[in-house]
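Why does residue order matter? Because the sequence determines the fold. Keep that principle in mind as you read this record.
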Amino acid sequence: MSLTLDQGVPEGLAWRAGRVLDVASAWLSAIAALVLAGLMVLVVSGFVLRYAFSSSIMGAEAAGIWLNVAIVGLGAPLALNSTLAMRLDVFQRLLPRHVRLGADMVAEAMTLLSGLVIAHGSYTVTRIVGGTNAGLGLPEWIPFALFALGGGLVVLFTVLKLIADGRIATLVVALALAAFAFWLAGSGIRIETGLPKSLILGLIVVVGLVVAAPLPHAFIAGAFLVVPFGSPLPEPAILNSAVSGIMKFLLLAIPFFLLTGTLLARSGVATRLIEFAGALVGHMRGGLAQTTLLTNVFFSGASGSSIASAAFGAATFQPELERHGYPPAKAGAIIAATSVLDNVIPPSIAFLILAMATNLSVGQLLVGGLWGGLVMAVALFVVIRLTCRDAPVSAPAAGGTRWRLALRAVPAFGLGLIVVFGIRLGLVTTTEAAAMAALYTFGLSVWFGVGARGLVAAFRQSATEAAAIALLIASAAPFAFLLAVDDISGLIGDLAAFFGQGPVAALLVSAIILFLVGLVLDIGAAILLFGPLLLPIATAAGIDPIVFGVIMVVNLMIGGLTPPFGVLVFVVGGVTGVPTAHLFRAVLPHVAGLTVALFAISLFALVWAAIA
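Structure:
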């Protein structure tokens, strides 16, 4: 059989590659789920020992961090084709077929190059790093070895996927491009451009976004490709920076919050929230849409992830909204817009990342996010009332029915006590609160009859999603380092000075930058890169850092609804099958309402700065 463009793989070879890929994925996800379960037991045990026995587990914090790195290594290949891979395919779909094929080759080459860099660079670091961890008595190179494993698996899974899909030409060209780039960066050849290294990296990342490469792998490949242009970060330093970026105990809360949201949905408690929300607002104008909104307000206290909420809402509410007469695009827009609340109302993964990047108080950020999220919810409530005038409504629920449904939803509200009040009162750390919330929803799932298969599936899904988010955090660390080296914060300060002195100028410059960044970057990457740059400018202008943190997250969450990235729109479109172009048009009124909410929060920041 002759080999033509992306054709010619023998059926038997393609089938075997697909079979190996399926088996390897199943085993990896099972091991990652087991590691996540062990991580939860470790953190909860430490909490119990501290309060019940005034004792602790030696090396527990280091063990937890290393287990989290293991989840990243195991889950990185599994996340390649998930929603959280963060592939921006809107541009690629607009290209002619032959150009799209070339873009696909470049995208796969960047993924392969990233995997090679992660594997080789991490292995190099294992040979450099010495010493033994005092708490665990194990060599300090182990986390880097786990990360190297993830890079090797990314390469293996990419190759198997291309063979299984019959894309042999793409595989050959992508391997050739990745091999050439790997040689070039390590050859010692230097290219002088006079441009800041962070700008070159940014341009490479933009190319990766345009060709639909996974965003974390575009970051890693880009950081490596800047080496010939005089980057101060050689390959080992890139990987040392990346792994160090995720070796923080606070980040262990992310997989636990993801697990909490997944278990809440599987246990049926989320359905009880929907029923209670419907009893409260279902009789109002746009009743089912308002129910979607209020459910997101309630569900925000569990998942902490807008992407998880968007996927859940698309699967749960889209069919019902369409059945009640809502056009598909309008229904999807409502789901996407209301899901922004999950990254603002606590617990919020976005605020966890912001706290890690800027050393702000997690507890204060969560309280600020609660008020900011409620302002956004009011804005969305008004938009729904104005845009859903002809939508059918349900009959008002009787008082007794509302109380009965409220009691049925009580188990879900217990999460707020564990998370927000536990952290705010200093009873538990953020990671412990997240682990206790996960354990609580695990108990609810068992109580409400979720079987072993459903529980295992929840742990598998959460481990994969956590790996994708952690990989993004790791991959953004080298970029953040180059931004600091190039003194981008000084340039931003000069820009703020151009607009004038004071909090108004600081907020205006921040709004412009965050809006532009939010158009193309995921919120996690944007926070990691620009949070440390913008926060000092805001605080120097007299703006409360916590309030500015809320403004930053709200601003970037609006970017989750706007083209070209609009990750929440893409998630809803992927689940429902509604074209994203239609969703982007339908979501415009909600974007306008959220912008008004952002303006109101910013006005509060200005008033607070004036009287402080």
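The CA atoms of residues 289 and 334 lie 7 Å apart.
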